[in-house]
Design brief:
The complex is a heterodimer of chains A (116) and B (114).
Chain A (H helix, E strand, L loop, with lengths): L2 E3 L4 E5 L4 E3 L2 E3 L5 E7 L6 E6 L5 E3 L5 E5 L4 E6 L8 E10 L5 E5 L3 E6 L1
Chain B lengths: L4 E3 L2 E4 L5 E6 L6 E7 L6 E7 L2 E4 L8 E4 L6 E5 L8 E8 L8 E2 L3 E5 L1
Parallel strand pairs in B: 2-11
Antiparallel strand pairs in B: 1-3, 3-8, 4-5, 4-9, 5-6, 7-8, 9-10, 9-11
The chains are: A mainly beta (116), B mainly beta (114).
């Protein structure tokens, strides 16, 4: 069965500093990997996804993530954090469902706080 | 509307009562998902609809939980004989059937069982 581990429950960074959120996955085949962000009062929003090809993927809001098969990791990065990035971030691994669609297994999330 | 709509946004009920939560997906999305998010946890898969049929209900915790999507659009999650442990945010998402299709999530229905 697939699983996702996000080892950091809370992370605090200063505005303008770089950010890396860790994600490790367990999956028997080539994984579909996702990062979602959840802000208070808003639904989960997709930041980026990896299916195949280039292992460095670019997403919205200046985020990027790198797939490393040898480490079973898909860490999320941003060079310079903005105060508006404060939110909860979820890594997920997907399995294709019969008839289409994706069954996502989420990690427990990392709460990001940004200090001004 | 443009996004996934869920109602009610908040529901407080008493232990043992019956609850219905509604999801209106993005128009044209044939795939619909229900997830449950407990405090401090990530969303957990409950059930997946492809059109009108439940293609995968492996995440439903027990037979008190049931979901329908009779016309292939709006879906209702039904919880019978609610228990305090059912308290959570219930999330609905929709997508196209492409394997790489993005799941679009609603804001969720927060259920509190007293």
């Amino acid at each position: 069965a697939q699983s996702v581990t996000q080892p950091d429950i809370h992370i605090t960074v200063s505005e303008g500093a770089s950010l890396e959120l860790r994600c490790n996955y367990s999956y028997g085949a080539t994984p579909y990997l996702f990062w979602y962000v959840q802000s208070p009062g808003q639904g989960l929003q997709l930041l980026l996804k990896y299916f195949s090809g280039d292992t460095l993927v670019q997403g919205i809001k200046g985020f990027e993530a790198e797939f490393k098969r040898s480490q079973s990791s898909f860490n999320l990065r941003k060079p310079s954090v903005h105060w508006s990035d404060a939110a909860e971030y979820f890594c997920a691994v997907g399995a294709t469902l019969t008839g289409g669609g994706n069954k996502l297994t989420f990690g427990t999330g990392t709460q990001l706080k940004v200090e001004l | 509307g443009a996004g996934v709509s869920q109602t009610p946004s908040n529901k407080v009920t008493e232990k043992g009562k019956y609850v219905e939560l509604r999801c209106d997906p993005i128009s044209g999305h044939t795939a619909l998902y229900w997830y449950r998010q407990s405090l401090g946890q990530g969303p957990e898969f409950l059930i997946y609809f492809q059109g009108t049929g439940a293609a995968d209900d492996s995440g439903l915790p027990n037979d008190r939980f049931f979901a329908v999507r009779p016309e292939g659009s709006v879906s209702t999650l039904k919880i019978q004989r609610t228990e305090r442990g059912d308290s959570a945010v219930y999330l609905c998402a929709s997508s196209t059937t492409e394997a790489t299709g993005e799941l679009f999530f609603g804001e969720g229905s927060r259920l509190t069982v007293l």
